[in-house]
Design goal:
This protein is of the alpha+beta class. The chain has 2 domains: 138 residues, N-terminal domain of MutM-like DNA repair proteins (Alpha-Beta Barrel); 133 residues, Helicase, Ruva Protein, domain 3. It is built from 6 helices and 11 strands. The strands form 2 sheets. A 9-stranded antiparallel sheet has the order 6-5-8-7-1-2-3-4-9. The protein has a two-stranded antiparallel sheet with strand order 10-11. α1 packs across α6 and α5 packs across α6. The longest helix has 20 residues. The radius of gyration is 20 Å and the shape is elongated.
Length: 296
């Protein structure tokens, strides 16, 4: 599933074509994706101006000038592409084949203005993605968002906050970091990378990073910095080049070439001076990659 950096990459790629444009028509080529589309979805948004594109956790938010927001989740295989002046360009060297079968083009945004007439097409072979329409004023109380923790790149996430969340917890650190109530949008790949950077084991109890008086320990301070750094690096690199992720211009991200532990089972640990190798274990049905020698 695309993680936060991938969704942020998509947002940045779509913004030049969508922000300031008018959504002349929303073409729905089926009745549902993972869930049915909202009632009167196409009619409700037709003719509305697009004020901005934003993101919350792994959700792409298309804010309309009438106060409504189109909420989009990419699921496992969803992607957007932009066609301007009836020309679709998909530059880039692909590491994995992408679906170009138009039968998987399920939603088409017909745009006018902005950079000129364009179509933004949502393609999703597996149809695990979904779209909804939410009033912006209702966003905080909506079931998608009301229980989400702070963004991993925002000012709300700091060591003091996590100390309060982790205090007394025997829950494995990896699971605590994946809990969206603790941190919004942080996924499996970047948790593995952040734990490696901070030399913390995914098996370690989350509460051990908190002192007896409830203060963040040195490990928690290091972890927060590592989370911020790994997300920033991934966004700068355009998201990871996984099988089902694609940037809006057709190219794939390249952060996967910088992975230090994720998907590197059996390879030498790249921590300077470490003689360990990367191991893979399964936690709550997900693969965790880490070095047992330098992560404790």
């Amino acid at each position: 599933m695309p993680e936060l950096p991938e969704v942020e990459t998509v947002r940045r790629g779509l913004a030049p074509s969508m922000e300031g444009a008018v959504l002349q028509a929303l073409e729905l080529r089926r009745n549902d994706l993972r869930f049915p589309f909202p009632a009167d979805f196409a009619r409700s948004v037709a003719g509305r101006g697009i004020a901005s594109l934003s993101r919350r956790a792994k959700y792409l938010l298309i804010d309309l000038e009438d106060g409504n927001t189109i909420v989009s989740h990419l699921g496992m295989s969803g992607s957007f592409r932009v066609e301007e002046r009836a020309v679709a360009e998909t530059p880039g060297n692909f590491h994995h084949p992408r679906s170009k079968d138009e039968k998987h083009d399920h939603v088409v945004f017909h745009l006018a203005g902005g950079k000129g007439d364009a179509r933004v097409i949502y393609n999703d072979p597996r149809r695990f993605g979904f779209m909804d329409l939410v009033r912006r004023t209702d966003m905080a109380s909506h079931p998608f968002f009301r229980d989400l923790g702070p963004e991993p790149t925002g000012n709300e996430l700091d060591a003091d906050y996590l100390a309060k969340r982790f205090a007394g917890k025997a829950q494995p650190l990896k699971s605590a970091l994946l809990d969206q109530k603790n941190i919004a949008g942080l996924g499996n790949i970047y948790v593995c990378e952040a734990l490696w950077r901070s030399h913390l084991s995914p098996l370690r109890a989350a509460g051990t990073l908190v002192t007896d008086d409830g203060k963040p320990g040195d490990g928690l301070l290091t972890l927060v910095d590592a989370i911020r750094a790994v997300i920033a690096d991934a966004i700068a690199a355009g998201g990871s080049s996984l099988r089902d992720h694609i940037q809006t211009d057709g190219s794939l991200g390249y952060f996967q070439h910088s992975f230090s532990v994720y998907d590197r089972e059996g390879q030498p640990c790249s921590t300077p001076g470490c003689s360990g190798t990367v191991s893979r274990i399964v936690q709550a049905g997900r693969s965790s990659f880490y070095c047992a020698t330098c992560q404790d």
